Amino acid sequence: MAVIGAxxxxxxxxxxxxxxxxxxxxxxxxxxxxxxxxxxxxxYDDGWIALVHSFGLRWFAGVACFSDHANQxxxxxxxxxxxxxxxTGRRRRPMEWYVGITPTYEDYAxxxxxxxxxxxxxxxxxxxxxxxxxxxLHWELECRPGVRPQQAGFDPHTLxxxxxxxxxxxxxxxxxxxxAWILTEMRDRWIDFKCQVITAFVAKAVAKLKAARSALMTGxxxxxLDSTAQEELAGQRVADLAALVDYIAPMAYHAILxxxxxxxxxxxxxxAGVAPGGRTLPVLQVDSRExxxxxxxxxxxxxxxxxxxxxxxxxxxxxxxxxxxxxxxxLAYEDRGNRLSxxxxxxxxxxx
Length: 352
What we know:
This protein is α/β, with parallel strands linked by helices. Helix content is 41%, strand content 11%. It starts with a strand and ends in a 5-residue tail after the last helix.
């Protein structure tokens, strides 16, 4: 069955699910062809999940694995060792709402795994998506044309783990010197190390989620980069991740990255080429105007016709199993929800 999803920030579900407006809103989404709600949080309201199910929609939960932005980055303030260190040897500077968390710290990773398993055991989720399951990178800003993204992971603990992985010591006195040597002399091994850390975490997460709820569908949000940058910057080796989960969800936010509609199609084709079996579930940017109120730059305006072009291009890509609107609330702007409905109706026969 194709997944036509709508992603909502958790504040959407802070109110009572018993409000009449909630039912009207879900009925409107169903009319657009939406059959799944996507969100992520550390707490969930069973009343909302039951209401969504009553409309025949599925509920995909999620957790931010290596980012604590929802808590104003409290984790890195209280545990400064988690704060990412760049190739300069200094801490990553905050960008908008984002700092990120170094993914090599076992205690933190285990705590996130335990949280996911607990949530899956407590609530009637249909699916669970892993978000921010990557090395630190504010890709929405750092991967725009002409911007040089920062590498991360050069704190003492991570360097020690890399030495063990590579089987050799790293020369240099300072973190910056060690980083320069790694990125010059051991770049391929460094990329393999970063990918191994993320893949191992996803494998553990899926095992714990399935143990808690065996029928749960699982997925990973991946960055919309070419495969080389995806592995080097994020540690996301899509072919390996696709073997572990039901859905690979490239966040093909074209306006955020100042790219044209055809770019979204190219990114999705790349993902579908290495995630066989109809596992590619692209997340598509509906509009830009919701960014500034949450302290983020989501790029230039997206006219309704441009949104329609992006969806039309992406849904025709072989191996795509649907799409997720980011955000679902933007489907109410102008005619965007109805445009989605028409395109989904046309493309249904091609979904795998």
